[in-house]
Amino acid sequence: MVESLWDQLASRLVGALGAQRSELVEVRDEAGNQRLLHAVLSALESIGAEPFVQIMPAQHVERLLATTPADTLAERDRRRATWLAEVDRSLALIGAQPALHQFPPAAVSAFQAASARLAIIRQEQQIPQLLAAIPAIGKAAQLGISHEELELRMMPALLLDPTELQTLADRLLPLIDSAATLTISSGPDATLQLQRATQPWQCDTGRIDPQRAPISYLPAGSLTASIIPTSVEGDLFLAVAGPARAAHLHFHAGQITRVSAMYGESELQALCARFAGEPPSTVQLSIGLNPRLTQPLGWPMVDRHSQGALTISLLTPESHHLDFTLTTASLRVDDRIVIEQGRLAPA
Measuring CA to CA, which residue among 19, 73, 27, 84 is closest to residue 49? Predict the structure, then answer.
């Protein structure tokens, strides 16, 4: 029997997850693709794993927020939190995001607090997690493209063999592994300098390695360096930065000290305000490796894995998180250019 693309993707997901016989595997369906969900459950059960399913696509979340009192939402998933302690691995199928701004703030806050409790358990239990971006109908609508186009652009990247990504990483690592100074050029007069910490580069090929990093992504393909937080110095230009366009950020000793933008400046300033008072606790720089992602979609968890993309991630002690992905920037490691205007430079 010829496998459908969804069957192939299900096999790739279960293989990337590394699920084993008798393991309890959490499956969070936030994409709402029933064909894929059924294929994933079948693939897990065929190897003897036991799925533990939560179905939460955007339209279901929106229905909950519209019809459920905030105090009821605050108590949701209490039993699930107990069961989650028994989970061996977790798979999230991610699609469209619910339009939270359309619902009462109290309901949204209660729903998010309940979800955050589960996220903390996964983190504290160090449950290996695979986060997969799924080309769902609702997500295509949010991105302003057809579902067919989204599938055509994403499926080759999702199905890419991890050995090909490892080969690309192995070619790049010798050029960057010993580098201390990383310099990003993102536009005219926009240069950002970072000092790498001593930890080795982390490679994500879309195959979970609990000994190195308990979280992996699909589409996959990245090399990530830890950065000394206080070393971030200079300017960053972003054509798109969340709600803003043509944005400029100035960093000094790891802090964002100035924010300007052609459009959406006040919204971006509000997002960056948590990073203005003191340096973030964690800073990372990721290099995208996936050669099947050729154009940015406007979906950050996908675009960051495009070959030649650079992503700067900031995290505060209070777990506030901010990512900036650049798809046309250049990267110099010490005195060698390794990314030139969004493309891997020849070795």
Answer: 19
Q: 329 is written with which tokens?
A: 């920037």
Say if CB 6 and CB 33 are below 8 A apart.
yes
pLDDT digits (tens, 9 = 90+) for 287-296: 999 999 988 9
- Whether residue 48 contacts residue 25, with contact meaning beta carbons closer than 8 Å, is answered with no
Residues of the chain with CATH 3.40.1830.10: 5-159
Distance separating alpha carbons of residues 28 and 118, to the nearest angstrom = 12
> Whole-number mean pLDDT of the chain?
90
| Nearest residue to 246 (alpha-carbon basis) of 265, 231, 229 | 265
Burial of residue 3, with CB atoms counted within 10 A of its CB: 0-12 exposed, 13-18 middle, 19 or more buried: exposed
CATH dotted code for 5-159: 3.40.1830.10
Closest CA to 222 of 301, 104, 108: 301
Integer-rounded Cα radius of gyration of the chain: 20
What pTM did the predictor assign? 0.91
Assess contact for 171 and 178: CB atoms under 8 A: no
Residue 67, H or E segment: helix 58-67
Q: How far is CA 316 from the centre of its chain?
A: 17
